[in-house]
Amino acid sequence: MQPSSRRIRGPGRAAVLASMTALTLAVATSAGTGRLSHGTPHTAGPAAQPTRGATVGPCMISGTLGVQMSEGMPTPPGYTRSTGTVRALNLMIDFPDAPGEGTAAERLAEFFPQTEKWFSTSSYGRLDYRPEAPIADWLRMPRTFKEYGIERGAPFDPGYRQLVEDIVTAADPEVDFGAYDLVNVLTTPNAGPSALDTVLSVTFAGNHEAPVADGVPVSNASFVYSRQDDGSGSYEETGYRVLPHENGHVFGLPDLYTHEGGGAVGHWDIMSEDWGANNDFLGWHKWKLGWLDDNQVSCVTGSGTVEYTLTPLAREGGPKLVFVPLDGRTGIAVEVRTGEGNDEAVCKAGVLVYRIDAEVDTGRGPVTVYDSGDDSGGCTRRPNVHAELSDAPFTAGETFKDQESGVQVTVDRVDLSGKYTVRVTRS
Question: Where is region (Disordered) located (predicted)?
């Protein structure tokens, strides 16, 4: 697949916000353990896929076979499960021409415990993400970084295949790969170009052609390279966020940025922008991952006007998502976003409305956020936060209307506890 790049204009400079589109190939996973197996494929996503009733069934849109990392539900086989205990193997590697910068423990500390806390907060504790690093030192590769031919957009073969084979050979005496659900390869940050010039970080998810170690294919692996440090002084607090983004692919989520940048979704999902201030997943993604129950989702299938109550997405419990299916592959989602939890960059709380298309490939714009104030310039000037969409949410008294479908969403009121009442009209 073609790599995508994201660019946000900040005060006086441009920062490249890119991580290449994850390759998506089918592989079998065990629904019982989430670990990779050679057996019959099971459904990825939540550890146990409940039987969906008629109330939400029409809202489980899906794409046709061949769509790369579709937003459709349920998540197809091959990805790591996204609920319960997930063990993440972390290997810090360096090269003869790029010896480890600092200690391997320091490199690991750039991502943990922040990443596990991020997932715990976002999932309301439903994902027990457990990072492990059985090898405490740098794992030296037998070839130079240059010899692997790793560059932006590089396919799995031949360079990454060779790298994975060398990692397995070096680590296998001390690592049981079969005990883990995913692999994070944290390279020394001095290997390859600066992330300000070219972001190499990439995930190969559901890769059934991956080398085998301890009887399982290393098929869900994220590779992180140079530091995503834009010079704003926020790296120590925000630099880890590339890893939740990359691991999002391991769980089956697509890139939401496009070749034109992050203007389709802005900072409303970490799969769109993973630089700068913290942000969360969209409610659709939380439902797809099994972090929202079906009874927290209202599926609007009938015509007329119906009133719904929504609680902020960051808070555990309560109704979270209203979804209006337009056909079998597209729909309009409605949720409440506030400056809580992982959503520290929210400068305008309110009702976020967006369109999902399960027929669109990763990195091609499968999600589009609707802006309540077109060409307003937004309400934030924080670096690496897409300004124009920062004030996208609708507030009390405002109405969104999709001219094509006739769907209308009116924000009626918000009470002192932060609950929003919306009226959804479907003609």
Answer: 33-54
Other C-beta atoms lying within 10 Å of the C-beta of residue 136? 11
Q: Are strands 408-414 and 420-426 parallel, antiparallel or unpaired?
A: antiparallel
Q: Compare 185 and 55 and report the one with higher pLDDT.
A: 185
Burial class (CB in 10 A: 0-12, 13-18, 19+), 390: buried
Residue with tokens 């697509």: 254
Q: In sequence order, what are the residues at sequence separation of 6 or more whose Cβ sits closer than 8 angstroms to the Cβ of residue 208?
A: 25, 26, 27, 28, 78, 217, 219
Q: Which amino acid is at 348?
A: K
Rounded Cα distance, 261 and 249, in Å? 18
Bond preceding residue 173 cis, omega within 30 of 0: no
Q: Return the minimum-mean-pLDDT range out of 33-42, 279-288, 350-359.
A: 33-42
- What residue ranges do the domains of the chain occupy? 7-250, 283-426
CATH architecture of 283-426: Sandwich (2.60)
Measure the CA angle with vertex 216, ends 98 and 137; round to 5°: 30
Which of helix, strand or coil describes residue 281?
coil
Give the integer Cα–Cα distance in Å for 358 and 328: 9
Task: Tell me which DSSP letter residue 22 carries.
Answer: P
Whole-prediction pTM? 0.90
**Rounded CA gap, 227 and 189, in Å?**
6
Whether residue 74 is preceded by a cis peptide bond, meaning omega within 30 degrees of 0, is yes
Helix or strand (DSSP H, E) at 222: strand 221-224
DSSP H stretches of helix in 72-214:
104-109, 114-122, 161-171
What pLDDT score was predicted for residue 15?
34
d(CA 82, CA 296): 18
- What would the two tokens of residue 253 be? 């989520």
Show Cβ contacts of residue 75 under 8 Å, excluding neighbours closer than 6 positions: 43, 44, 45, 82, 251, 252, 288, 289
The neighbouring-strand residues paired with 203 are 222
Strands 350-357 and 367-369: antiparallel
